[in-house]
Amino acid sequence: MSDRIHTILDRRVAAQRDAPALTDTLGHIWNYDELALASNDLADKLTQLGVRKNDRIMILMENCAAALAAIFAASRIGAAFIPINARQSAAEIARVIAHADPAAILFTAEVSGEARAHADELGATPLHLGLHALARASNPDDVLEEVATILYTTGTTGTPKGVMLTHANLVFGGQATRETRQLQNSDILYGVLPISHVFGLVSVLMGATVSGASIRLEPRFAPATLYQALTSGLTILFAVPQMHALLMQYTKEQGHDRLPSDTLRYVSSGAAPLDPDWKRRAEAFYGIPLQNGYGMTETSAGVCVTRHTDSNDDISVGPPSPGVKVKLDLEAPGAEGGVGEILVAGGGVMQGYFRNPDDTAQVFTNDGWLRTGDLGMIDDVGHLHIKGRSKELIIHGGFNVYPPEVEAALNDHPQVIQCAVIGHVEQGDEKVYAFVEVARNDWPDEDALHQFAATRLTGYKRPSRIVLTERLPAAATGKILKHKLSDLLND
Q1: HSE-CB for 417 with a 13 A CA cutoff
Q2: Whole-model pTM?
Q3: Is residue 427 very low, low, confident or very high in pLDDT (cuts 50, 70, 90)?
Q4: What pLDDT, on a 0 to 100 scale, did the predictor assign at position 159?
């Protein structure tokens, strides 16, 4: 049996017992020994509550010390943890409860008003470390010996889809993060990416644990809070484009052209393509190279990541991470001119979808490669370039339009914070619609944006409509919720 995630924590305690592990907004300042003790105590409490090996423990959470203790406590018991962002609706949570059938539900009620409201509605009571708990009838019929977590992917309708990641998957992802980012035990990571999402869970929590680094946990993103952290010792920033854009806007409003930090040594962006001009501006802002990456829940986050030592015009997501293999299916829908569906193999690939053998079978090729559903191309030096989701491909006038290319072009405009592009059917053809986030006091002219796009995009790729807004709909991770963009057309 491979290492379980709590054994990685215990090994860290043996190596650096008194080293700082985390801080949170509730005032917890724990070293690694205190984190391990808290997880042991919580494991005992959960066992007394009736949780057994092979059970599932749902954690309705925002980032805090108690949530991390619960994750390692589940590992000690031999149960799988199911982290759910507390900001989800009661209906969304009810669907996951029905599908996952957890033996217990924990609520980070002390740090989250939403978690407390869910706890009150479901009748939970205080347990330990500020957590509230609800015990349910145990049903360990599913043998989950190697499964560490079940992550339910973002969806709008239908049966929830739970990605089963093993302990080996999480440890692999943490080790890859340490190697590709060269994490050290002196590093301080910013922990605002939700630990309930694979990026925060693997790249932040597991990356820090295998490295002995510490995490500054934040339950919610706010540019002012991030600015303060970056100017007071933070060394590692994993973020998504929305966070970078809002931080840069906030810093500009404070009268600075660049970030005044002398400790930040690594910054990365993910979940959206880069434009060379935007990348150069971001690197001038941070004063260090901006790294880019690509991953998904089913691959334990990281598939590819860049490792630039200086600024350049490479806007790829880099080569495969250590232990990961990538190839293209050039016969997949949307493939053309060297673009194909991205297939992945390696130590981070999931075990499958929980209680869903049909979808599991469909997402794997006969020889075991994971079909990502994403389109990409590989350049002459082996770097992967993301072209978009195959399901988001826009076919306008018979031509393939990849939304990331249009988004990257518009993001280069100085008044654009970020944008998202979708296809909108009009009279039997898909039109390119761009939704652009701008600052309230810096509203651009829509015609000027169309003219700007015309200088960067060929005719069939240009947006037929540009919708300006002060805020794009986004998940807690910062990922833009494209299925909600059409709602802005009625505003």
Answers
A1: 27
A2: 0.85
A3: low
A4: 66
Distance between CA atoms of residues 283 and 125, nearest Å: 48
Burial (CB < 10 A; 0-12, 13-18, 19+), residue 83, is: buried
DSSP string over 52-76: -TT-EEEEEE-SSHHHHHHHHHHHH
The answer, yes or no, to whether residue 462 has pLDDT greater than 60, is yes
Residue 268: closest CA among 293, 291, 295:
291
Identify which of 162, 72, 59, 152 has the alpha carbon closest to the alpha carbon of residue 112: 59
Question: ∠ CA(331), CA(335), CA(341), 5° rounding?
Answer: 75
Closest CA to 301 of 165, 122, 395: 165
Average pLDDT, the chain: 91
Contacts of 234 (CB under 8 A, 6+ apart): 188, 189, 190, 216, 261, 263, 264
pLDDT band at 423 (very low <50, low <70, confident <90, very high): confident
Q: What is the pLDDT of residue 156?
A: 39
φ, ψ of residue 254 to 5 degrees: the values are -85, 0
**Number of alpha helices (DSSP H) and beta strands (DSSP E) in the chain:** 14, 25
